[in-house]
Amino acid sequence: MLELLLCSVLTILPDYLFRRFAQGKRLGKEITLYSVWFELRWGIITCLMLTVGLITVIFYNHPSTTSATIYFRTIPIAPEISGRVAQVYVTGVSSEVKQGAPIFRLDSSTQEAAAEAARRKIAEVEASMVSAQTDIAAAEGRAQEAASSLQQAVDELETKQELNRRNAAIVAVREIEKLQNLVKGRRGALAAARAAKQAAEAQISSLLPAQKASAEAALAQAEVERVKTVIRAGVSGRVEQFTLRVGDIVNPFLRPAGVLIPDLAGRKTVLAGFGQIEAQVMKAGMVAEVACASKPWSVIPMVVTGVQDFIAAGQFRGGEHLVDAQQVARPGTILVFLEPLYEGGLDGVTRGSSCIANAYTSNHDRIASESIGPLKGLALHAIDATGLVHAMILRMQALVLPIQTLVFSGH
């Protein structure tokens, strides 16, 4: 409507002034309701053509959309393990929580039993280490006893052999053989005693420490599992839809306990979907404005911080069926990220609110450069100036939005 009024001032009004003052035709006499088309046909046709062109220029270079929303992230409140609720720390369906604050606790009897079993295993290994020290001392005593017995047998054998060399009749050969067998047996006993000592030393240096480390690892795992039974808030925020009660069964995959909305979620970014035809116009750094339904009569200055370079409607996942282009019900939009131009720009706007967004093209840098001619610079000036029309339209929409919502929408 604004475009039509603006164009009529440049076309229909001059045509009427020419008819009135140059040709002397009077309104209500020569120019009547029935002769308007014939008398002002040039102005009307020019006005319609100029209006269509102006609307095209405005909507292409200064795109607008009603598909703008302040999205916010939600965190499902779910434990890492399944279990029965033993205690609930948050009261009510909705409540504020701080980071690290407990929300609810599961029954931890199984985890505590596993931890106690691991502690008993550690105590058992430590007792075995004390016992192994005693075994080493006993093996050392047996080794010394076997070494003494061996030395005694060797001395006796050498004495008998020396006597046999001097006079064979003094010592019988059978007695020497018995002493030789005795020496062999006592050497074996000494080797067995030393092997028992080495086995005890290996047990206390390798086996028992490894068993103790395994028991300590089992205790640490049991403690970790016990800690998992207390579900805490990962970030500060607000717990919503929390209906959990003592005795309920909670499953991390099938039944979350509620949702946690972080404090800063939905406070920094507005996501807007613009038409695909405006993909070449939308650039990061463009100035924009939004008007949200939850904060009427307010226009918030924004800036484009990012433009998604793909359209969600064209995505697919690999499977056994080929993709048919007709499956896309409607063309997707270009997703644009808008952030407030000033600190606290979204204060007072409810998270999840629907908004109207305008983005404005600025050719100031191109005009300031010397690479374009005067005619092109004038055209770029005109394109930038047409953004004023879109800004006025946005303010009119913000002005009538409460009336349209409360009166004409059947509220």
TrEMBL record:
The keyword Chaperone does not apply. The keyword Kinase does not apply. Keywords: Coiled coil. Residues 115-163 form a coiled coil. It comes from the Bacteria. This is Secretion protein HlyD family protein. It comes from Methylorubrum extorquens DSM 13060. The lineage of its organism: Bacteria, Pseudomonadati, Pseudomonadota, Alphaproteobacteria, Hyphomicrobiales.
